[in-house]
Design a protein that fits this description.
Elements: E1 2-8, E2 13-19, E3 24-32, E4 40-45, E5 48-52, H1 59-71, E6 86-91, E7 102-103, H2 106-115, H3 122-136, E8 142-146, H4 156-159, H5 166-171, H6 180-194, E9 203-208, E10 212-218, E11 221-225, H7 246-255, H8 260-269, H9 272-277, H10 283-291, H11 295-319, E12 324-328, H12 329-334, H13 336-343, E13 364-366, E14 375-379, H14 383-395
Parallel strand pairs: 1-6, 6-8, 9-12, 12-14
Antiparallel strand pairs: 1-2, 2-3, 3-4, 4-5, 7-8, 9-10, 10-11, 13-14
Helix pairs in contact: 1-3, 10-11, 11-13
The structure holds adenosine-5'-diphosphate (ADP).
Length: about 400
């Protein structure tokens, strides 16, 4: 079975084509600047790049070029689009209705539209990718995989906010959590690596990238997570503030006379380690700046690790028994220094990093000492594969 996985943003589209027989990625690509001058598709196959530079005014045109690239006689991997058995789409917000991945029908679309009030940039963009596939591949089933779905097992005590309950009842304002596809994948891999039944696996999954979130997993299910109603809550991220006293928001709004959407922009795009350091949202740049003595870059890195520690320790108490702390995402997989820094202070609970074992990037590794009370691991995440697997299971 061949499955196309699509992750559609407002002006970009990432895709991967899987052969599910051996879960091999046949080809992957990225379209950028959809609806903006300079639209461009770059497809990669065995290290070779195939580039299409054509105007792409909308997502349907972009998907059309993806299909052209897939069947291109020289650079493609398919002889005909009929070889595509199903398409798996990443959706950011599924609200409370979407508790797992689903074959897309009118009811699912309605749930996606309903949840769009909390993801006004993402859900409509994700839907554009779907619409393009429905138009261009009318007989191929589409599956929706939600970033929020894995977290729908959280109990009320972790998902409710400390505000008037009517806002939950009337508006569905609550913690939803994101990166669910990644935390789900990590939980399954960790259970395998620990040799444990999924239903007996308790872990802390730390997905640290441009956007970062940490999830407490109890008995294989999400129990608590750092992101909230939207991906803004929790850790200090590349450009997102993470947790704040809400009064900071109202104060700055009033002081600088900002509209709610300008404030939203400030908190999502100009805050986080970028805002604190004034240097970059990229952790490699921050590490370099801090090593060269930039104090604000050092503050940003220290804030990031301190808050991660706070959540990891708190979540260990919440789930009562922790089998492993797992690092993933661009930073979690690659930053040897930040992993070491985040695990400092956990020695008092008998959790110890093995410095030599920690000298790894990506892959799947145990980086704690033999006698560490809790295993610490690095596991490279694979959200696309997770989407492809869910898609295969639903269309089989
Ligand atoms: P996204 O959330 O966009 O998927 P990624 O998971 O790819 O992001 O993570 C991107 C982040 O990972 C960037 O901040 C980047 O600096 C960081 N990163 C990648 N490689 C390294 C490295 N070797 N050391 C430190 N940080 C790294």
């Amino acid at each position: 079975m061949k499955i196309l996985v699509i992750n559609c943003g407002s002006s970009s589209l990432k895709y991967q084509l899987f052969d599910m027989e051996n879960e091999e990625v046949l080809v992957k690509g990225l379209v950028e600047r959809i609806g903006i001058e300079g639209s461009r598709l770059v497809q990669k196959k065995n290290g070779d790049e195939f580039i299409i530079e054509e105007p792409m005014e909308n997502h349907t045109q972009a998907v059309g070029h993806v299909f052209d690239a897939l069947v291109d006689s020289e650079n493609g991997v398919l002889s005909s689009l009929d070889e595509i058995d199903a398409v798996g789409h990443r959706f950011v917000h599924g609200g409370e209705k979407m508790t797992k991945s689903a074959l897309i029908d009118d009811e699912v679309k309605e749930a996606i539209n309903e949840a769009a009030k909390f993801a006004p940039l993402h859900n409509p963009a994700n839907l554009m990718g779907l619409k393009a596939c429905e138009e261009l591949l009318p007989n191929v089933p589409n599956v929706a995989v939600f970033d929020t779905a894995f977290h729908q097992t959280m109990p009320a005590k972790t998902f409710l906010y400390g505000i008037d309950y009517k806002y939950y009842e009337q508006e569905a304002i609550r913690k939803y959590g994101f990166h669910g596809t990644s935390h789900n994948y990590i939980t399954k891999r960790a259970a395998d690596l620990l040799g444990k039944d999924l239903s007996q696996t308790n872990i802390i999954s730390a997905h640290l990238g441009n956007g970062s979130s940490i999830t407490a997993v109890k008995e294989g299910k999400s129990f608590d997570t750092t992101m909230g109603l939207t991906p803004l809550e929790g850790l200090v991220m590349g450009t997102r503030s993470g947790d704040l006293d809400p009064t900071v928001v109202t104060y700055i709004e009033e002081k600088e006379n900002l509209s709610p959407s300008q404030m939203n922009d400030l908190l999502n795009k100009k805050s986080g380690v970028l805002g604190v350091s004034g240097v970059s949202s990229d952790f490699r740049d921050l590490e370099e700046a801090a090593n060269n003595g930039n104090q604000r870059a050092q503050y940003a890195l220290d804030m990031f690790t301190t808050r991660a520690k706070r959540y990891i320790a708190g979540y260990m108490a919440e789930i009562e028994r922790c089998d492993a702390i797992v690092f993933t995402g661009g930073i979690g997989e690659n930053s040897i220094e930040l992993r070491e820094e985040m695990m400092k202070g956990f020695e008092q609970f008998g959790i110890k990093i093995d410095k030599e074992a920690n000298e790894v990037r990506g892959g799947e590794h145990i980086i704690s000492t033999e006698d560490s009370k809790v295993k610490v691991m690095v596991v490279a995440t694979n959200e696309e594969l997770m989407i492809a697997r869910d898609t295969q299971n639903l269309v089989k």
